[in-house]
Amino acid sequence: MNHVDIRVAPHEPWYKYGVAVLLFEIAVAIAVSGYSLYMTFNGLGGFPGKH
Amino acid sequence: MRGHKVEQLGIATVGFFWCFLMWFSTAAFSPSIAATYHLTIKDLGLLASSAIWMVPVGRIVAGWASDRFGAPRTFAAILAGCGLVSIASAFTTSYELLFAERVVVAIAGVSFVVGVQHVAQWFDAHEIGTAEGLYAGTGNVGAGVGALLLPRIFGTDYRSAFLWLGMIALVVAAWYLWRGSAAKTMERRDAVRRGGDLRGMVFVWTRYIAIALMLAYAMSFGLEIALNAWLPGYFTRGFHDEILALGFTGVAGIQIAAGTFAAVLSFNASLFRPFAGFMSDLFQRKGWTPLPFIAKELPYAPRLHWLGIALILIMLSMIGLTVAGLYGFLPLSIAVLVALGIFVSFGTGGTFALVPLLFPDCPGIAAGFIGGISTVGGIAYPLIFASVKAHVGYLYVTLYMFAPFILFYFWAARHERHPQEHGLLDRALAGQRS
User: Fold this and answer.
1) Helix locations, B239-362, DSSP H
2) Which domain holds residue A39?
3) How many angstroms separate the Cα of A47 from the Cα of each of A44, B28, B211, B265, B341?
4) In a domain, A9, yes or no
5) Which of A19, B212, B218, B326 could tie B377 with a disulfide, CB 3.0–4.6 Å?
6) Which of A2, A3, A6 to mutate to test the interface with B (most CBs of B within 10 A)?
7) Contact call for residues B349 and B137 (beta carbons, < 8 A)
8) DSSP calls for A12-42
9) CA end-to-end span of chain A, whole Å?
């Protein structure tokens, strides 16, 4: 483990793609949660795959 | 050492994803297995619980093995072993043998700590949170994908599913061996190999900060697996009339609604985990140390503060679940549950953004201890939930377990220099070279 002062360590190119992936995963989580809760509170079904 | 760190992150993530898929594939097909062998509810409960039997001890052994033999060999052995037994289970006609084989396949769940060690060996301190979060969060999705897709692809034909899962596991194992590399540099690999002995294990197990992180992970991941098992039954009993009022009828309808509420927690806990690692990196980059008592001068002090905030948020959410339940207000209970899922991810992501930094010479042993023992929470919390009235179980767990865990965390993380020096045994007695 390299102990560098990370307050000045620049991010490497992979990092922005990593952040893009995590933002995509958050968007999926919000979309699926919102959809399934909407369906449930309207008595229409539940989580995808649980029908 | 050969390879690029993003490739190593990709290999570890795919390997972990596939292991999680195999780990939870038994649960995905439990109705089909029950129908084939005419299982009772009790048999089904035993089959479901068997998935975590091997995890506490298995993770300890796997963490040590990854330090000693390198993550690629250890991960490939887990994938190949579990894959072969999964293939064998596809041809089994006796339920007793099938049960035993699926317990062995569930060993795939121990692979988590091997990947943590692998990623820690390739990524530097300033990006470890995001890297570990992407590995663990994306890999965890394997459980959800299994629940969603496996029954749709294979229908009730669980034998074909087990066969394909096993065969692809063998392919992933071969890929891991071919392209996987244990560490970024030989120096790092050698340092970890030297630390991966019995002395290293005694040292880690007796450190107060390791115990504090283990309890933090028990408050987050341990709670997550406990709630996965507990929540469907809780909503069915605790909000029976409210769910009927939504328009659901019959046992199957109530089961769908209750299962949906439970799944939202687990889904958020998995998919927000990379964000939690990113936040740990951000705290570190900005130097934020807002909490009292916890060290402020350590090189990774802001990460300790981020985890402390996560633990407090988990505790407040648990109290919120009790309050919402006592008022019988279903929408509030679900809103708190969504928040709890996100806060749980903060706890899991925050913990493993710290482990490789605190124990750089034995990250596998540390990950095995913290990731293994903490899963006992998955068994302990439901027992407490079940022993009191429906809604107050969360409050009991919070007051009698989580509050002391947090106080211990604050106490163990207060040292401004080398918190890992402090433990039940002094450094020499713990067998560590000074």
Assistant:
1) 240-245, 250-271, 273-286, 301-327, 330-352, 355-358
2) 14-46
3) 10, 14, 37, 12, 16
4) no
5) B218
6) A6
7) yes
8) PHHHHHHHHHHHHHHHHHHHHHHHHHHHHHT
9) 47
Looking at the domain assignment, is residue A27 inside a domain?
Answer: yes
Query: Which residue bears the tokens 């297995």?
Result: B33
Distance of CA B355 to the CA centre of its chain: 14
| Tally of structural domains, chain A | 1
Complex ipTM: 0.80
Tokens at B77, concatenated: 């052995």
By residue count, chain B amounts to: 434
Question: What is the Cα Rg of chain A in Å?
Answer: 19
Chain A residues whose beta carbon lies within 8 Å of the beta carbon of residue B248: 43
Q: Considering only the beta carbons, identify the residue of B137, B248, B267 that sits closest to A33.
A: B267
Query: Are B328 and B86 contacting, i.e. CB atoms less than 8 angstroms apart?
Result: no
A24 belongs to a structural domain: yes
- Is residue B200 within 8 A of residue B430, CB to CB? The reply is no
The dihedral through the CA atoms of B118, B120, B123, B128 has a sign that is: positive
Residues B40-91: tens digit of each pLDDT? 877 877 887 788 888 889 999 999 999 999 999 999 999 999 999 999 999 9
Cβ contacts of B261 on chain A, cutoff 8 Å: 40
Give the predicted TM-score (pTM) of the model.
0.89
DSSP state of B299: T
Radius of gyration from C-alpha coordinates of chain B: 21
Q: Tell me the per-residue pLDDT of B172-191, one tens digit each, with 9 for 90 and over.
A: 999 999 999 999 999 989 98
Nearest residue in chain B measured CA to CA from A40: B257
**Cβ-Cβ contacts under 8 Å, B148 against chain A:** 48-49
Answer yes or no: is A2 within a domain.
no
For chains A and B, CB pairs below 8 A equal: 116
Segments in chain B below pLDDT 70: 1-3, 427-434
Which residue out of A8, A19, A25 would a mutagenesis test of the B interface target, given it has the greatest number of B Cβ atoms within 10 Å?
A25
Cα separations in angstroms, B101 against B35, B77, B272: 18, 16, 33
